[in-house]
Amino acid sequence: MSEFFKKSLAKFGPEKAYAVPSLEFSRQFCLTFTHNNYENFSVVSRLLPKPLIPHFHAVYSFCRWADDLGDETGGGEKALEYLRWWRLELSGCYLGKPYHPIFVALAPTIKRFQIPEQLFKDLIFAFEQDQLVLEYQTYEQLLQYCKYSANPVGRLVLMLWETYDEEKAVYSDHICTALQLANFWQDVARDFLIGRIYIPAECRLKFNYTPEDYGCRKQNQAFESMMADLVDRTEKMFFMGSPLLSMVPKARKVDLELFMEGGLSILGKIKKLNYKVWETRPSLSKWEKMMILGKSLLKRLPLLSK
Q1: Architecture label for domain 133-300
Q2: Cα–Cα distance between 156 and 176 in angstroms, integer?
Q3: What are the structural domain ranges in the chain?
Q4: Interatomic CA distance for residues 73 and 9, integer angstroms
Q5: What is the dotted CATH code of the domain comprising 7-117?
Q6: Phi/psi at 279 (nearest 5 deg)?
Q7: Percent of the residues in the chain that have a pLDDT greater than 90, as a whole number
Q8: If residue 27 lies in a helix (H) or strand (E), which one and from where to where?
Q9: Which one in 19, 46, 141, 214 has a CA-CA gap of 20 to 30 Å to 193?
Q10: What's the CA dihedral at 146, 151, 153, 157 to 10 degrees?
Q11: If DSSP codes are grouped into helix, strand and coil, which group holds residue 285?
């Protein structure tokens, strides 16, 4: 639990009484929370139009706060209690009575971009599911989880970009699901340590990777073949979403390429490790992240000169 989140929860948590904060205070709260939790946001934010930045701060803060309520408060019934409270705070916001600073900051964003409440509800549902479902039996069940945990984020971004329609949303869903899956394959070992298994049982059975193998983190040919198959499926899902690149405004295309290249680079790292993710967590170095960002900025220069 980050120190900022811990202190903020003690001050603005359930059953805490305080005066409704001002919009100025609330936006500063979201800015601070974002920069405390997302080390690349200061660089990424340079790619965004300045008027959009506080809206992205508010949406990111909602998502990350909900995630922390699920994962950083002890889990189980306690986490579910916090998430039920967060759902009530969301309802209050949509009833025109925002209270928590994040919802005070989020209210103008909801109004400005006409964001439906269901997108935020879906994200909370996913965080609740994290407390109740620790292992998935089928690949389809995992994709259904991504429908709630990842896809709403892409739809929110399209709305903030003011380019949302259902056709674009379908392609965005493919990209967001692929990003979520790439994160799962990156964090197989980390998730196992907290009792979560995202590689579906049917996939493990298909490649004869036994529960005993998983329990002792066995790195064998069966595991590597299984991971190769999962990475291949995920790469194909990224490409299923790639038509979105030609459908968004040119300046936003650069941002979208940044997200896609980050996910595809993680999959490339997994391949280079020969799928040995039990032994090493694949990640991008600061230099590699800067290279991806640098390429995006170079593509942005002709647009800025117009």
Answers
A1: Orthogonal Bundle (1.10)
A2: 11
A3: 7-117, 133-300
A4: 10
A5: 1.10.600.10
A6: -90, -35
A7: 75
A8: helix 23-37
A9: 141
A10: 160
A11: coil
